[in-house]
Amino acid sequence: MLLYMLTPPILGQYSFERIYTIPVIKNNALLTRAWEGGLNHPICSNVDFNNNGVKDLAVFDKTGNRLVVFKDESLIFEPIQLNIDLERWVLFRDYNCDGLMDVFTGTTSGIKVYENAGLFEFVLASTLLQSDFGTFTSNLNVLNQDIPGIIDIDRDGDLDIITFNINGVTI
Question: Could you give the count of Cα atoms lying within 13 Å of 70 in the half-sphere of its Cβ?
Fold first, then answer.
């Protein structure tokens, strides 16, 4: 125990930077999709990233908070860096009914929404969504291991959110 306390901590690499442009060659052939890697906890959304009228597949991997996009029908992989903090889960939905996909993401205390200002530049629309319980309002809670359902369930033109209560028992 004394030896452990007297030994200065050995520090290694804290993090690394992903560089997707390095060519990978195997058996004298260029691997075109070498950096895609696996997806451990993918959360998928359809969104037109390059404004060509074709929906792309946006995938947020909860492991490492990584957002990647498979563009067009050819599913060309491209890592995406947005100007916002993405945590826990990410879903692209049209929050303000302007035809642009906005970002819903989880936080420690609930759900944050970032509005798409155009060309995938996002501004914080709501620090935390709240739910009206009649006599009081409260942050709309989403459990750490959960992903809410965000869709127009009753087809009235606005988004509805389905999530479990804080006990994880009832919706």
Answer: 15
Positive or negative, the CA dihedral 156, 120, 58, 13 is negative
- Contact (CB, 8 A) for 128 and 160: no
pLDDT number for residue 137: 82
Mean pLDDT of 16-39: 81
* CA proximity to 18, closest of 74, 61, 73: 61
Return d(Cα 98, Cα 103) in angstroms, integer: 13
The two three-digit tokens of residue 30, written as one number: 């260029």
Q: 0.90 exceeded by the pTM? A: no
Long-range interactions of 80-87: CB distance < 8 A, separation 24+: 80/49, 82/120, 82/122, 83/121, 83/122, 84/114, 84/122, 84/124, 86/60
Instruction: Say if CB 109 and CB 99 are below 8 A apart.
Output: no
